[in-house]
Amino acid sequence: MKLEIDSFSGFRIYPSKGKLFVRGDSKVFRFANSKNASLFLQRKNPRKIAWTQVYRRMHKKGITEEVAKKRSRRTVKHARGIVGADIATITAKRNQTAAVRQQARLAAITKAKTEKKEKESKKAKPAARASAPSGPKVSKQQMKGGKGGR
């Protein structure tokens, strides 16, 4: 006894039962009853109709318990050094407390500020000497060779 499968619902069709529909491109569709045939001809999507086998398969309905869930391997994390820092310094930094980190940050800020002040004070001394005028003032037009405001 050869059982056919409904093209729309996925139900079994027993011999001498159901309908056969052949489309213009010679593709054969079998339907268990007129309800399935009607829904197919209305171009309904069987994946969206809750009682069809396709819907049940898509939404994992009625799957037996014997199919165990596939076990996935846990990824093992390895700590490696980065260019410019070995693993020991990285782990030391990671294990630091927030208070120590804050203290180090403040120390770095104060150091940077003192260095900046020293740099500015060195710049200010030579600039003070160079700013003194040396000779008569000449306008831009006179330098270009213009009349110079006569």
TrEMBL record:
<dbReference type="InterPro" id="IPR038630">
    <property type="entry name" value="L24e/L24_sf"/>
</dbReference>
<keyword id="KW-0687">Ribonucleoprotein</keyword>
<feature type="region of interest" description="Disordered">
    <location>
        <begin position="110"/>
        <end position="150"/>
    </location>
</feature>
<feature type="compositionally biased region" description="Basic and acidic residues">
    <location>
        <begin position="112"/>
        <end position="123"/>
    </location>
</feature>
<dbReference type="GO" id="GO:0003735">
    <property type="term" value="F:structural constituent of ribosome"/>
</dbReference>
<keyword id="KW-0689">Ribosomal protein</keyword>
<dbReference type="InterPro" id="IPR000988">
    <property type="entry name" value="Ribosomal_eL24-rel_N"/>
</dbReference>
<dbReference type="GO" id="GO:0002181">
    <property type="term" value="P:cytoplasmic translation"/>
</dbReference>
<protein>
    <recommendedName>
        <fullName>Large ribosomal subunit protein eL24-related N-terminal domain-containing protein</fullName>
    </recommendedName>
</protein>
<dbReference type="Pfam" id="PF01246">
    <property type="entry name" value="Ribosomal_L24e"/>
</dbReference>
<dbReference type="InterPro" id="IPR056366">
    <property type="entry name" value="Ribosomal_eL24"/>
</dbReference>
<comment type="similarity">
    <text>Belongs to the eukaryotic ribosomal protein eL24 family.</text>
</comment>
<feature type="domain" description="Large ribosomal subunit protein eL24-related N-terminal">
    <location>
        <begin position="1"/>
        <end position="66"/>
    </location>
</feature>
<dbReference type="GO" id="GO:0003729">
    <property type="term" value="F:mRNA binding"/>
</dbReference>
<dbReference type="GO" id="GO:0022625">
    <property type="term" value="C:cytosolic large ribosomal subunit"/>
</dbReference>
<feature type="compositionally biased region" description="Low complexity">
    <location>
        <begin position="127"/>
        <end position="137"/>
    </location>
</feature>
